[in-house]
Specification:
Length: 189
């Protein structure tokens, strides 16, 4: 193989977005029920790394954008990504229960009409939900998508290794910043 060798790329990005008028965010009873069902009853792990630690439930299409979205497009996009495929549901403690429930909801409501629908919810650990450089809220979609398509087995690196590398660079950056500010505490790494 010739061409570009493996390398690490670093960049920053800025974002701007419009939010339609929306109701104050409230936790609906449907969200509470679905969260409990996916995470606790079915024991679904983090979608990225499979961890059972610090699991949070993420809205794929954010609540605040919902009023501006086309439910049919939302449904199609979620179907295309297929968060609840066999690879993932197999890792839940109750895979059959989870799959059967989703099938029932699909039958009853072919079009998703609320952000709190189970098909718009996915479990992430804290690290893969919100933390810098690894969380879905902190990296761009192209990067997140590429990480998501890494095979469970047999790839060049695992998702874990790739995300860990980004996280280590973050820690090193923090250490260097602390050093520059004369605020360095040894043994933090
Ligand atoms: Zn995770």
């Amino acid at each position: 193989m010739s061409g570009i060798v493996e390398h690490f790329k670093k960049g920053t990005f800025e974002e701007q977005y419009w939010l339609p008028a929306h109701n104050a965010r409230r936790v609906s009873s449907l969200f509470r029920r679905n969260k409990k069902f996916i995470r606790d009853t079915c024991g679904a792990p983090c979608w990225v790394c499979g961890s059972m630690k610090d699991r949070e439930v993420h809205h794929v299409f954010e609540w605040s954008f919902w009023n501006a979205l086309n439910p049919k497009k939302v449904t199609n996009i979620l179907k295309a990504i297929e968060f609840y495929d066999e690879d993932y549901t197999d890792k839940a403690q109750a895979p059959y229960m989870l799959r059967a429930h989703i099938r029932r909801v699909e039958k009853r409501k072919p079009i998703i009409d609320t952000p709190d629908d189970i098909r718009n919810l996915v479990v992430f650990c804290r690290r893969h939900h919100r933390l810098k450089l690894t969380g879905i809220h902190t990296i761009t979609f192209p990067i997140w998508l590429a990480i998501s398509a890494i095979p469970a087995r047999g790839g060049i690196l695992t998702k874990e290794q790739i995300l860990m590398a980004a996280e280590r660079v973050r820690i090193i950056d923090e250490e260097l910043a602390a050093l520059a500010e004369n605020n360095y505490k040894p043994n933090r790494l």
